Amino acid sequence: MSGVDPRAGVEVPHAGPHLTPSTGEHRVAFRGVIHTGTLTLGPGDLALLDPAGGDVAATAGTPGDVVRVAYPPRLADAEALAVRLDRNRPERLVAVGDGSTLDVAKQAWRLGTAGPELLLAPVGGEPWRAFAPFTSLYGRDGSRVSRPDPALGDAGVLLDAAALSRRPQRVRHLHRADSIVHAVEVLLSRRTQEWGRALAAAGLSALCRDAPNDDLAGVVGAGLVTEAFAATGLGLAHAAASPLGAHAGRTHDAVNVLLAPHVVAYWGDRVDWRAVAGPLGTSPRADAVAARLTDLADLAGVPRTLCAAGFSWEQVRAAVPAAMRSSGMPWLPGPVDEATLTELLRRAWAGP
Fold first, then answer.
1. pLDDT tens-place string over residues 242-257
2. In CATH, what class is 34-165?
3. Contact between residue 24 and residue 337 where contact means Cβ atoms under 8 Å apart
4. Of 4, 44, 63, 225, which has fewest CB within 10 angstroms of its CB?
5. 169-350, which class in CATH?
6. Degrees, nearest 5: CA angle 213-184-286
7. What is the DSSP letter of 349?
8. CB atoms within 10 A of CB 59
9. Do the beta carbons of residue 39 and residue 121 sit within 8 Å?
10. Residue 37 buriedness (CB in 10 A; 0-12 / 13-18 / 19+)
């Protein structure tokens, strides 16, 4: 999904290491083992923790070594961790926390030579990154460097229902809304083949089934959708949200969720919304789908305009060239030029 344009220094979506779906092929991105159970740490583990992960790990046992990180995820952190892995030779590298922290662990695991078992325990925001065959970290110059790597699909993932149940509701709702937007974009993409469409539809259904007493459904749904977009890329909301988040030094999940209703309104009823509307529980009309996505954004505490989210118009306008280079752009339901995207973002910035 994510790559880097070395000129812009920001993340640009791409289709990952897989063949284009026009060949009729879908190469499986995640090939690791998914465990469902309770996190347990022991003396053979090096635990990588952020604030969300630290709360969980406090009752999980005593690891042999602990490294703590915080947002933003830095390539330098991954490089330092790789050195530590090679020096200390733990049996396992266990990353517990937000998706950005999991990316630090994934990159360190690939940079090092020690080769410990890699276990990712998503317990915070962006849990879908546990299943993604790429990392997205910030370089020393502040640019975001994204690296696709098929080997990252070999990681193990631990789904700890008790730990997930302790997430703040805003984090839970934001992750759910973000992954729902991912699913919608996969289902709208002309690049998506039947296998990816089935994955996205199943993931969307699980995400929409996500209930307060079912803390696994949302993460399972996110994993299915991630497997779909690893081969197809994403759409217009993500194309703009990614460089906006990168330039602002923040995750782009909230921006993705904010933009989605505006994108749906732009497409209008030129698009067949039936595959999306069923799981969302709406009628297959653009206004109904947009209203449902707005409700999800409200639950996550996402502002309704980019201005209210703290972006200046200059920041928004500056993201347009990078958004236009997104590999998902040629596969949108219809062509979108720079002027059209600029006007769509102006409306998303200023509001109706």
1. 999 988 888 999 999 9
2. alpha beta
3. no
4. 44
5. mainly alpha
6. 105
7. H
8. 11
9. yes
10. exposed
